[in-house]
Amino acid sequence: MAGVHPSTVSRVLRGKENIPIPEATRQRIKKAAKDLKYLPDERARALRLGKSHTIGLVVPDISNVFFAEIAKSIEIESYKAGYTLVVCDTNEEQEKEVHFVNNLISRGVDGLIIAPVQDSDGHIFDLKEKKYPFVLIDRCFEDMEANAIVSDNEDAAFKAVAYLARLGHKRVGFLSGRQNIYTIRKRLAGYKKAVEEYNLERNEALICGNGFTFESGYEATLEILSLPNPSTALLISGNIITLGAIKAILEKGLNIPDDISMIGFTDNIVSPYLVCPLTTISHPLREMGKKAFDLLIKHVESKDNLPFTEEIIKTQFHVRRSTDRVLSQVEAAW
Amino acid sequence: MAGVHPSTVSRVLRGKENIPIPEATRQRIKKAAKDLKYLPDERARALRLGKSHTIGLVVPDISNVFFAEIAKSIEIESYKAGYTLVVCDTNEEQEKEVHFVNNLISRGVDGLIIAPVQDSDGHIFDLKEKKYPFVLIDRCFEDMEANAIVSDNEDAAFKAVAYLARLGHKRVGFLSGRQNIYTIRKRLAGYKKAVEEYNLERNEALICGNGFTFESGYEATLEILSLPNPSTALLISGNIITLGAIKAILEKGLNIPDDISMIGFTDNIVSPYLVCPLTTISHPLREMGKKAFDLLIKHVESKDNLPFTEEIIKTQFHVRRSTDRVLSQVEAAW
DNA sequence: TTGAAAGCGCTACCAT
DNA sequence: ATGGTAGCGCTTTCAA
Q1: Which of A287, A185, A178, A194 is closest to A240 using CA atoms?
Q2: Which residue in A12, A45, A94, A204 is deepest, having the highest Cβ count within 10 Å?
Q3: Closest residue, by C-alpha, to the C1' of C8
Q4: How much is the pTM?
Q5: Long-range contacts of the stretch B22-27 (C-beta < 8 A, 24+)
Q6: What is the location of CATH 3.40.50.2300 in chain A?
Q7: How does pLDDT run across B5-30, given as a tens digit for each residue?
Q8: Does A223 score more than 80 pLDDT?
Q9: Which of A63, A85, A99 has the CB atom closest to B65's CB atom?
């Protein structure tokens, strides 16, 4: 339409200012592009250039605010950096994760951020072998060296149980999510350490649940409350589980926190406004997302083989009391 | 590696069973593919085939459970149908939306589902002009014929206010989100209609707020509570806003629902477990997501120009009382 | 039964 | 200052 060769169009439209092209031609081409509402075909560019300026994010549940927050911060960072983010939701299903990882590679994303399901790791080892840039977030594999941004689950669980112990609790229940993933194993380790150190009741029946759904939280809580000696406090590993637990507690006619104390392992915007203000462990999700993105891009844009980076981020402890609905933030340092 | 021509490999790997290729060759090729961990380059395929089996979803805030639920259901449907979903979060910024829509088209998605920011619509008209398949979800443009799946906001708002009127309220506040979008305009219309019909106090100051953030909910509520005659009930247009409103109400030392009643315009999994169980209007988000996906795919896979479909989905009214934390679902039919 | 060639849209390189 | 050409990886058509 501008009467010039495609290569010339290409040069003008990507603003190669250093190439000598008369202003007249430039304008003609730009006008034509505008009139035609021309959009470059990014597939073709990616094919030609070997770079897509796209990264993939694979999370187990985008409808859980925990991962939605992470996704949001990574989205914001990618936009700023001129990358497009592709988000995939595995629904905690290993098969879907493998599918998505392969699919994303197939479509030429420059790198991946993954919160893995952790029922298997072969596909992740494949990524390493191919030297494909990727960063694990929230969950990592302890027997695998890889880029990872995780939070300090063990320490947080320890401090939470210690806090309950100091309030006088002797039987603390632990509502776990899926037990074979990194975060839960770490939290369980911290829980057990505190149980030892504070000489609380050791009872496997107090460790209950195996899933991140509302129902599993509800049922696990009912189990614990039906014990001959039910726990007087609960440490709860997830946003949605917490709601199931509340339902069970209320149905049993119990009061929170008079009859049973709760600490939630993830904080979110509703925590202060629940039935009873919920004391929580807060994960700096936005920060984790940003760090994961920055780390990934560093690897994507570097020519050399950078060494892997693993960062464990400190959590914070938010004490919330029913007497005050005002959020008070206590440093986890005690 | 299998000693055959790429075209033969292509034929085998995509299971063109009708093409006569000896089983021996087939096995050789499949083995080689497996050993090499070969993954087809979807960019190249898309380029060649003119079809990417990818659809794009553009939402204003993925960290809001409202859109996260929609995203989740669309994700599930696409996976089942063999499509990959690309989710983009515009953060309610028009500029980002235009960027994402163009970007998605550039990368050859087969169709788009959009919950638009609605500060402008030129880029949407462009889609229509190019006959690009797309479906609007949750928010549509009243002066534009297009595929759309929305819920019955006006009716829902009317019934909610009517419900409050029947409880004896005379001054009902309306906490709106961004006022220039479809959903809010419709809700406002329903609100005003009920105010007329039930002869409630007409006062523009009772309509307050312009944003979907926690802060805007907080501040709008403070404004309403600071009126000479504060409202005795609130209709609240959003998940996050609701939390800001609760904060404001509690800070004022008021009790929910004794001093002030609340109805939330979106229901979610935490609604029953807030400070006071929240009566809500529930949008069938999963159903809306599925309908939007099915409609989009119908258009994507049809050769002809199908007529546009606009569907308005009924909402439901969930009455929740502080005396019972058990969810009681009342048909919106009364 | 398989290979060769063309082309999807783009851009880097080499010519002119 | 611009045009031609090749090739990214794939699939389809035609040829053998």
Answers
A1: A178
A2: A12
A3: B48
A4: 0.92
A5: none
A6: 52-151+284-313, 153-283+318-333
A7: 888 888 888 876 677 777 888 888 88
A8: yes
A9: A63
Q: Could you please report the per-residue DSSP string of A95-113?
A: HHHHHHHHHHHHTT-SEEE
Residue of B nearest to A285 (CA): B63
Interchain proximity A270–B243, CB inside 8 Å: yes
Return the CATH architecture of domain B153-283+318-333: 3-Layer(aba) Sandwich (3.40)
- Please state which CATH number belongs to domain A52-151+284-313: 3.40.50.2300
Per-residue model confidence as pLDDT tens digits over A142-169: 999 999 999 999 999 999 999 999 999 9
